Amino acid sequence: MTITTLAELSANLRNGKVSSVELTKEYLDRIESSEHNAFISVTSDQALKSALAADKQRSSEDNSSALLGVPIAQKDIFCIEGTRTTCGSKILENFVAPYTATVVQNMHNSGIVTLGKTNMDEFAMGSSNETSYFGDVKNPWSSRQAGGSKGNLVPGGSSGGSAAAVSAGLTPAATGTDTGGSIRQPAAFCNLTGVKPSYGRCSRYGMIAFASSLDQAGPMTHTAEDAALLLNTMAGFDIKDSTSLDVPSEDFTRDLGASINDLTIGLPSEFFGDGLDNDVAVLIENAIKEYEKLGAKIKEISLPNSHLALPSYYVIAPAEASSNLSRFDGVRYGLRAEQYTDLVDMYTQTRTQGFGDEVKRRIMIGAYALSSGYYDAYYAQAQKLRRLISNDFTNAFKECDVIMGPTTPSPAFASGSRSDDPVSMYLNDIYTIPVNLAGLPAASIPAGFTQNGLPAGLHLITPYLSESKLLNIAHQYQLVTDWHRQSPLTTRGNA
Ligand code: GLN
Fold first, then answer.
1. Does the annotation count 182 as an active-site position?
2. 75 among known catalytic residues
3. Average of pLDDT values for 284-302?
4. 340 CA distance to ligand 1 middle (Å)
5. Which residues line ligand 1 (CB under 6 A)?
6. Which CATH superfamily groups domain 6-263+407-485?
7. Residue 240 annotated to the active site
8. CA–CA separation, 112 and 101 (whole Å)
9. Cα of 376 to ligand 1 centre, how many Å?
């Protein structure tokens, strides 16, 4: 089996080659027999109902929306009315959402069918999907490692279930969320195209909050064209989210075909220094050469404050998380401890039993950073660094149209190999986090395979609200390479 894109499925549905019900059944069967633990909940009945409705709508309408009847998977961070929504946590193990997230509603309004909810790091905190209460997810590329090792590799995180599901052909696309890299890093580890839109592009209403000033939903697909199609249905102003941007809606596919022969690519020296795996560095250099063949010019640039991104993120994100997660108290949502002595003990027991170690660690760091006496020393300071990091990008974009580099310092690593070392886990996001702090759009696209047979991602960053340009740059590369077409289920070919 090779990869199947949303664009291909959309054409097949339009030409009557396949019905939405047939497609949906096919993907549900694959999910049923898969061993990746990519899904927390599979919503078969609802999916088949929506597929049937989509088929009916198609037969009675001439101009149906592009993705009518196409099945996809949703990260289990998005509330869907009447559906269990766990956010990868024991505290929400049995929580059934009373309303639907706006991005999911937008997709359903376009006739997209939801197959189920994908596995994820607990409350989206993690880079390996190993903090999920619902167990590790297997990276489908594990079996493709050179040298005979077939040990499990992590799919990345926090959107690890979404990445594994798309890569293993259990769904043609999925949603993810990216607070510090959680769309782009798993996309890089699983050979996918993952797009983090500009902050404010997609509504956060009904998306369980981790760090509200950083969280952003986005598509995880095989191709940039598919990402554009999916983003078309996800994005849009939402009165229910005060940080949602009131900008006119756009067709993100409109510039895909534009020439990039006058493109200037900025390469920040900070993204190619110590800590970058040699194999990954070579693949990224090759990808840049491919862009030069397409006419792009290269410019060395600098993001001098990027080394401050990780420390400021690990103050800001936990601070916001400690506030956001205070709502999980055993009174309003989800789990309540069975035995307790009084109200305070009920809170304590519930949160002790309901949250995993990483979530507790973040809550403690965040509460500490926000406490009186320390606020100025940590939180206020981190906000100042955030401004410097953001200014670096503004300056860089005076010299180039797009910034490129590796998405991650290394390819997918072995399950369990970093779970006892939070700092080495945090370093996964060293290139992706500055982008969230600055609110910019960015993507990871497949850029080839290491000698060990594992995918690497090329990271593309463009100015605020320039998703059409970002997708254009990604698409032009995908027209001349076929890394994105490689599937762990087939023999690897050459680009
Ligand atoms: N890995 C980062 C973290 O653990 C980013 C997570 C995310 O983007 N949701 O915070």
1. yes
2. yes
3. 98
4. 33
5. 124-127, 158, 178-182, 210, 317, 429
6. Amidase signature (AS) domain (3.90.1300.10)
7. no
8. 14
9. 24
Domain extent listing, the chain: 6-263+407-485, 307-385
Residues 208-266: tens digit of each pLDDT: 999 999 999 999 999 999 999 999 999 999 999 999 999 998 999 999 999 999 999 99
Residue of the CA atom closest to atom 5 of ligand 1: 180
Q: In angstroms, rounded to a whole number, what is the distance separating the alpha carbons of residues 445 and 103?
A: 23
**Taking 50 as the threshold, does the pLDDT of residue 494 lie above it?**
no
**Which of ligand 1's atoms lies nearest the C-alpha of 433?**
5
How far is the C-alpha of 8 from the C-alpha of 252, rounded, in Å? 18
Distance, in Å, from the CA atom of 268 to the CA atom of 270, rounded to the nearest integer, reads: 5
Q: Exposure string (b/e) for 340-362, b if CB count within 10 Å is 16 or more?
A: eeeeeebbebbbeebbbebbeeb
Q: What is the DSSP string of 412-437?
A: --BTTSSTT-HHHHHGGGTTTHHHHH
Residues 454-489 pLDDT 10s: 999 999 999 999 999 999 999 999 999 999 999 998
Q: How many angstroms is it from 488 CA to the middle of ligand 1?
A: 25
Beta strand 174-177 pairing with 217-221 = antiparallel
Are the beta carbons of 367 and 266 closer than 8 angstroms? no
Smallest Cα–Cα separation from 235: which of 106, 108, 75, 68?
Answer: 106
Q: One of 64, 128, 182, 203 is an active-site residue; which one?
A: 182
Map tokens 């782009």 to a residue.
Answer: 184
pLDDT bucket at 148, cuts 50 / 70 / 90? low
Of these residues, 19, 20, 41, 75, which one is catalytic?
75
Residue 223 CA to ligand 1 centre (angstroms) = 23
**Which atom, in ligand 1's list, is nearest to the CA of 181?**
8
Rounded CA separation 318/364 (Å): 8
- Ligand 1, atom 10, residue with closest C-alpha: 125
> Cβ of 279: how many Cβ atoms within 10 Å?
17
Torsion of CA 59, 61, 65, 68, to 10 degrees: -20
Rounded Cα distance between 23 and 307, Å, is 46
**Single-letter amino acid, residue 244:** S
pTM: 0.97
What is the DSSP-derived secondary structure letter of residue 96?
B
Tokens of 475: 């698409």
Minimal CA–CA distance to 121: which of 353, 419, 323?
Answer: 419
How many angstroms separate the alpha carbon of residue 317 from the centre of ligand 1?
9
Of 158, 162, 312, 415, which is the active-site residue? 158
CA angle at residue 311 from 319 to 176, to 5 degrees? 65
